[in-house]
Amino acid sequence: MNGFLHELGKAPLTAKFGVVVVLLYILVALFAPLLAPFGESEVVGWEYQPWTTENWLGTDSLGRDMATRMIYGARNTIGIALLTTIIAFVVGSTAGFFAAVLQGWVDQLLSRAVDVVISIPTLIFALLLLTIFGASVTSLIGVIALIYATFVYRIARAVAMGIVVMDYVEAAQVRGEGLWWIMRKEILPNAAPPLVAEFGLRFCFVFLTISGLSFLGLGIQPPAADWGSMVRENASLITFGDLTPLIPAAAIGLLTVAVNFIVDWMLHKASGLKT
Amino acid sequence: MTETQSPLLRVENLQIEGLSEDRWKTIVKGVDLTLGKGEVLGLIGESGAGKSTIGLGAMGYVRDGCRFSSGSVHFDGIELTGADRETRRNLRSTRIAYVAQSAAASFNPAFKLINQHTEFPVRRGVMSREDAQKDAIDLYRQLQLPNPEEIGFRYPHQVSGGQLQRAMTAMAMACRPDLIIFDEPTTALDVTTQIEVLSAIRNIVEEFGTSAIYITHDLAVVAQMADRIMVLRHGAEVESADTATMLNAPQQDYTKSLWAVRSFKAAAKPAVAEGQVPVVSLRNVTAQYPGMSKPVLNDVSIDFHAGRTVAVVGESGSGKSTTARSLMGLLPPVSGNMVLNGAALAPEFRKRSKAELQAVQMIYQMADTALNPKQRIRDIIGRPMTYYRGLKGKQLTEEIRALLRDIELEPDQFINRLPSELSGGQKQRIGIARALAASPRLVICDEVTSALDQLVAEGILRLLDKLQREHDLAYMFITHDISTVRAIADEVVVMQHGRIVEQGAKAQIFTPPHAPYTDLLLSSVPEMDPGWLDRVLAERVAQSA
Predict the structure, then answer these.
(1) Which of A165, A167, A181, A269 is the best mutation test for B, with the most CBs of B within 10 A?
(2) CA distance linking residue B167 with residue B103, whole number of Å
(3) Which residue of A116, A174, A177, B176 shows the fewest CB atoms closer than 10 Å?
(4) Which pTM value belongs to this model?
C-alpha cells in the first residue's frame, strides 16, 4: 500500500484526478444509505419538481428524489459493472492462458469459438441473449461477462503467447510443474500489468453497455435506480430546457474519463516509457 | 599513416551524459582521441565501458536520452558536437559511415541489398544509379562475396549472416567515406565466418586508406584490426598505445587483468575408470523437428561421466543446442535411445518421473529470459528444492542460504531480490543455483558464458569448476568458444550439420592431426598476435594451392 501511495505521488495530475474521482464514486456507492436523504424508490413529491433545498436535484417522472437515486444508482451501476468485469477477467484470462500454454487443438477450439462470439455485434448479441434468458440482474451479469470474456481471452492469450516462449517457462515445464502452477506462478505475474490496464478499459465498456441496456429497458430493472435508466425515464425533461437528465449521463461520463486516466497511467508504467 | 597532416578526427575531453531515472549521469567522462588519415583505432572494454557511445559521439550523434555535456569532436575542421542536423546528415554516409553489430537488424528486410546500397550515393548526387550499381558489384567482389554480380539483388534474409555483414561494410564504403565506425561487426558471427569478415574489412580499409574506429570486446580481434588500441572502463580511458606495445607491455593493472583473462584452466582429472557406468548416455540419437524433411541430429552418441565435463563445440546450426533439447526431453529422438544410470530414459519429458527430471538440469545462455522477472531469488532457487526434495519452512531457507553462499553471493543481501536487481554475472549465478537446487547428476550448460564480459565469464567458469568438484557433477558444456573449451573440458565433441565430426579426450582433439573441420574451427580462433590473421590466411592459401 505504501508502495502504491509512493507511486501515486509521482503520477501525473490526470492519474491523481482519476484516482480521486474513482475513490469518491466508491465511497458514495458504499455509504449510499447513509448519504441519501430519502429511500431508493420512495415517492417524495410530485413528478418533475424543480431543484429545491429539500430535493437537491428535483424529482423524477414518478416523484422520486433524483439526488437519492443518483446515489443509489452509483451502487447498482458500478457494483454490477465491477462484478461483471471481474467475472469476465477471471474466465477470459484463465481460458487465454490455458490456450497459450497447451496450444494445439485446445487453442484452436477456444480461439475459433471466441471468433464466432466476437463476430456478432456486442449490443445485438446481448439483447438477443437477454430476451432469451430474461432481464434479471443474474442473467445480465452472466451475459455481459460472457461477451466481454471473449475480448479478455484474446488479450490474455496474446500476452501469454509471448511469455510461454521464455526460457523460464520452459524451465518450469521440464522441472515437471503442472499446468496450474505454470499459469499462476510463471505467466500471471508477468501478464498482469497489461491485463490490469485492460481491466480498467473493459470496466468502462461494461459499464457503458449496462447503462445502454438499461436505457433500452433490458438492463437493471425498476424500481432499482441506475444511471442509464434515469437518463431514459427523464429524457423528456430536456425538451423543457431542464438539465437534470444530463446529470446521470455526466456521472457516467466522468467515471469513464477518470478510469481511463488511471488506465493510461498504468499502461504507461507497464510499457516502461519514461515520458 | 602520415603523421605530419592534421588529424582527421580530434576528440577532446568528450563528455556525454545519459538520463537515468530523471537524473543526468555522466557515461563518457572526458575522453580524448585523435585519428589520422588511414589509421585504425581499436576501442576495447567491457559492456558499459562507453565504447559504442564514443563511437556514435565521433559521428556527432548521441542516442535518445543522451547529450553532449562538454568537450569537442572535430572532424576535418568541422565541429560536430553543436552541429545542426543538416550538417551532420550531410557528413553521414558521404564522409562518415557506420557499420552496426547486427547487420540483420540494420538492413531493411523489404528492399534488395543493392537498392539499399545505392540509395545514399544516388540521393547525395555522388553518382548515378547505374554507376552506383556497378560500384556496388565491384565492392562486393573486393569483399569476397560469392556471386558479386547477383548477390546484391537478393533480400537480406536470403544471404547468410557473414555475407550480410560484408554487404553492410560494402554499403558503408559506397561513398568512399573518410571515416568508418565499426561497432562489434563480427561479435554475432561464428569464428569460421568471422575470419572471412575480418580479412575482408581489413583489406578494403587498407585499399581505400579509410580511417576507422573499431569497437569490440574481443582482444584478439582488435589485435588484428587496429594500429592503435585504446582501453576504456566506466566511460574513461584506461590507457592507449599502438597495438604491439599495448599487447606486449600494458601499463595499467586493469589492462593486464583483461589480458590475463584466458589464463584459467581447470585441473586435469584422472581418466575414466574402465567399466564405469556413465551418468547419462546418448546412443545413436537421431532427432527431427515435426514437418521437416531432414533430421537435425544424426546418429549422435555421447557418454557423460560423473565429475567430468564434455564440451560440445560447433557453429550455430551444428546441432549443439538440439542435442541438449533432446536430452532434456524437449525434442524426443526419432531413433536411438537415452540412458540414465544404466536404465532407459523416457524420450519425452512429460513421460519422465520426478527423479529422472531431477537428474538432468539445464543452465540457459540468456539469464535474462531464464529467470522469471517477477519471482524473488528465494522462490527461484527454493522451488526446485521444494518440488524435488520436499524442503519446507526453516530447512528450505537454510538450504537456500547455503546454496547462495556456494555460488558466492551474500545470502542476506540477495535472497529477497528480483532478477532485475542483479548484474549479468549475478543472474547467471542464480541460473546455476537453480540447476544445482535440484541436486542433479548432469548439468547442461548452454553457452552460459557467451553473453558475459570476459572477466565475469572467467568467474563463472571458476565457479562451475568448483561446484563440479564439490558435487561430483557431470557437465555438458555447449559453446562456440574454443578458449572456453580449452579451459574446462575433459572431453570434446565437435559437431557440424547435426553430426559428430570428431570426439575424444581434450588433449587428443587439440593435438594434430585433426579432422578437416576441427582444423578449420581451431585455426579460425583469433589469437592475441597481430600477425595471426595474415599467417592463417597465408596458410590457407598455401593449403588450397
Answers:
(1) A167
(2) 9
(3) A116
(4) 0.81
Residue B122 to residues A228, B117, B119, B129, B514: CA-CA distances in angstroms?
64, 9, 5, 6, 50
Predicted confidence (pLDDT) per residue in B308-342, tens digit: 999 999 888 788 889 999 999 999 999 999 999 88
Cβ contact B364–A171 (<8 Å) = yes
Q: 3-class SS at B42? A: strand
Least confident of A68-77, B16-25, B95-104: B16-25
Reduced to 3 DSSP states, what percent helix, strand and coil does chain A have, rounded to the nearest 5?
75, 0, 25
CB contact under 8 A, A175 and B438: yes
Contact: B349, A176; criterion CB under 8 Å: yes
Given an 8 Å threshold on Cβ–Cβ distance, is A168 in contact with B370?
A: yes
Q: Per-residue pLDDT averaged across A92-98, rounded?
A: 95
Q: Cite the DSSP H helix spans in B152-252.
A: 161-173, 191-208, 219-225, 243-248
B445-475 b/e (C-beta count within 10 Å ≥ 16 → b): bbbbbebbbbebbbbbbebbbebbeeeebbb
Please give the order of strands across the beta sheet that includes B343-345.
Answer: B297-304, B280-287, B335-340, B343-345
Q: How many helices (H) and strands (E) does chain B have?
A: 23, 20
Binned at pLDDT 50, 70 and 90, residue B45 comes out as confident
Q: pLDDT tens-digit profile of A180-203? A: 999 999 999 999 888 888 888 888
* B370 → closest Cβ in A167, A175, A185: A167
A with B: how many residue pairs have Cβ under 8 Å apart?
A: 47
Phi/psi of residue B535, nearest 5 degrees: -65, -45
What domains sit in chain A, N to C, each tagged with a CATH number?
80-271 (1.10.3720.10)
Reported as a single tens digit per residue, the pLDDT across B175-187 is 889 999 999 888 7
- Helix, strand, or coil here: B80? coil
Report DSSP letters for B453-469, one per residue. -HHHHHHHHHHHHHHHH
* Residues whose CB is less than 8 angstroms from the CB of residue A4 and which lie 6 or more positions away in sequence, other chains included: none
* Contact predicate A133/A154, CB 8 Å: no
CA gap B332, B499 in Å, rounded: 17
Does residue A54 surpass a pLDDT of 80? no
Which amino acid belongs to residue B79? E
Of B230, B205, B235, which Cα lies nearest the Cα of B219? B230
Which of B19, B375, B384 faces A175 most closely, judged by CB atoms? Answer: B384
Q: Answer whether B23 touches A (CB < 8 Å).
A: no
Nearest CA in chain A to B359: A175
List domains and CATH numbers for chain B.
280-511 (3.40.50.300)
ipTM: 0.78
Question: Looking at CA atoms only, how far is residue A61 from chain B in angstroms?
Answer: 55
Q: Which helix (H) or strand (E) holds B283?
A: strand B280-287
Grid cell 538432468 — which residue? B360
Question: How many Å apart are CA A193 and CA A180, to the nearest integer?
Answer: 20
Quick one: average pLDDT of B283-294?
87
List of E strands, chain A: none
